[in-house]
Amino acid sequence: MKAIYFMSPTAKCVESFIADFKTNPKYKAAYVYFTDYCPDDLFNNMKLYCSKYIRVCKEINMNFMPLEAQVFSCDNPGAFKSIYSPKSQDKQKTLEELADQLVTLCATLDEYPGVRYKKESNMENTKIFAELVDKKLARHYELDDSGTKKGKTQAQLLILERGFDPVSPLLHELTYQAMAYDLIDIQNDTYKYKSKDGLEKQAILNEDDMLWVKLRHKHIAEKTAHLQLAEDCMQCFSNNVEKLCKAEQDLAVGSDVDGLKVKDPMRTLLPVLLHPYSTQDKIRAVLLYIFSLGGTTDENLSKLIQHVKIEDEREFILNWKELGVPIITPSFFSRKSSRRDRSQDETYNLSRWTPVIKDVMEDAVENKLDAKDWPHQSECPAAWNGSGAVSARQKSKTTQDERRSGSRLIIFVLGGICFSEMRSAYEVNQAVKSCEVIIGSSHILTPTSLLNDIKALSKGPMETFTIEERSNA
Asked: Of the candidates 453, 423, 451, 284, which has an alpha carbon nearest to the alpha carbon of residue 357?
């Protein structure tokens, strides 16, 4: 038999490939497709041992996971610890790998974007990463097969890191997809359930399920289909969780349903702490309280930790500092950025918070990003306004324009994105037809996985644990 190999150009993969042919060949011939550029040393190794078996060897530049129409992932949850743990020994290597993957995304889209990054006063990751990506993009387009050097296209790539919005990934989201992944144990996008006749069944939640695509961003209050999963969600979403969601929204937004400012966030938090919610729900609420104040005192934090009974697990809270998020005041870094006024938007009372990334997307499309906060690592050839309007002096790229009338905005978040941020890309895309918004990250987050990752930041490489996974409080 002949074999097709689809693999990453890593030492581990290449060694496994060579092992298949070195002493006792398993296959008659091999057709090898690399997801990315293969380093010379690995390529020469393959040639040395396997050249007579290799019929095809191609680099196809697709070293990322296209999860949804507008969402991609580098499928690397371990990147969180590598980037943010003070004990990390492979941070630079991880950033290099993520940059390589992001370059293959741009190559697949045939884009050579201008690169901008969110400048943080207390963190350097976005700056370092933007430099890496820009260098690798330049190198990639230097190596173009056609021999012609590609110029920058009408696309913009924005780079942020997880600490820019610590609120969105922790809120209880009431849109269908986010709620399902938060409350139900869905592994590998597969939902397992018992049908009415008691048989074990499973459903794959992906783009092939048109009903899922149609419903995934809808608020739980609007839905009538996908009943079994909806029922499971609603079982978890009892009256108690409704009160919890209201408190979370008040803390996140800073005002209540009627628009009145929350003057004393502790009065909002206390009922949550006094109710028998799960430990994880209480941790999420305490964090939202701290974020709303921009940090709290040592004394106050100790009281909260005692109250939630997590004296031995205080890292769930303290380790946010590794993401540049202030936990203890006084903090020298003010993070209170002004938000867009959405008071006129129609929302559900329990879903008033808008992810910060949606503001960023809209500002980018309208060309309103402040150059001080968003330095250019490299610029597009013409003033980018997301409308696809280009300078009259530029040659028109007919094939691109036939495919889409506007330009592309690519957003990449170091350290994970949550489902409400994914949804934001679709909402902005829908509102601004002339600009395609694509969002991606090292991996996709749920509140549980993020809290586990945060706690693990202070552990050594071999220490592991898990938070109490879920509670149908």
From this structure: 423
